[in-house]
Write a structure and sequence with these properties.
Blueprint: E1 2-7, E2 17-18, H1 19-22, H2 27-39, E3 42-47, E4 51-53, E5 58-59, H3 73-84, E6 88-92, H4 95-100, E7 106-108, H5 114-122, H6 134-143, E8 147-148, H7 149-159, H8 163-174, E9 179-182, E10 185-188
Parallel strand pairs: 1-3, 1-6, 6-7
Antiparallel strand pairs: 2-5, 3-4, 8-10, 9-10
Helix pairs in contact: 6-7, 7-8
Length: 192
């Protein structure tokens, strides 16, 4: 079994949501996460605040860089990986996060400088399809939890400038895992 470990990101969505979505505000995270999902059987995210977490874990935005030399961190990561089994660990982390993995036998997903790594990971797929203003949509849903569906539709129609894509993007959001539609109202799925 292969375990992919992806570093979190300083850029975050503005509301509580699953970790994979929270960090997807960063194109680098999104590219690494996509590559890890394609390459590995299991993926975990190395968070500066929460340690090694499952991508589906709902967390709130925070501002804390990882301290790879924090006493006990490497041991915590080692124990978390041991609970998964004895996987082959593939790291999608930069050097400072990699130091936190020092007790774990691992290999790098891509080697070389930043350009070689980006080129290698970019061959696995693009994140360019994520073109709608997700950040603004998540924030609106969080701030207007329980709003009328018509109000959400108006927001969407004002947000996208191209009329040909407005309806498609609105429908895409309604089918997404962060919208709950009930009795003509829209709810943000990850409100505490």
């Amino acid at each position: 079994m292969t375990l992919g470990i992806v570093a979190c990101s300083a850029k975050k969505m503005p509301t509580p949501c699953p970790a994979w979505l929270l960090y997807s505000a960063s194109p680098t995270f999104s590219q690494n996460y996509l590559a890890a999902k394609q390459d590995c059987d299991t993926v975990r995210i190395l968070s500066g605040k929460h340690g090694l977490i499952e991508p589906e874990r709902v967390i709130a935005p925070y501002d804390q860089r990882i301290n790879p030399d924090r006493p006990g961190l490497a041991e915590e990561i080692q124990q978390a990986i041991h609970r998964i089994g004895d996987p082959d660990v593939l790291s999608y982390c930069p050097k400072d996060y990699g130091r936190a993995l020092r007790l774990v036998k691992h290999r790098l997903a891509a080697s070389g400088g930043i350009y070689e790594k980006a080129q290698a990971l970019g061959r696995r797929g693009s994140v360019k399809g994520n073109v709608f203003p997700l950040r603004a949509s998540l924030l609106w849903l969080h701030q207007n939890h329980g709003a009328k569906l018509k109000d959400f539709q108006r927001f969407c129609m004002r947000t996208w400038a191209t009329p040909s894509t407005q309806r498609a993007q609105y429908n895409r959001l309604l089918r997404s895992p962060f919208c709950i539609i009930k009795d003509g109202h829209v709810f943000y799925a990850f409100t505490n």
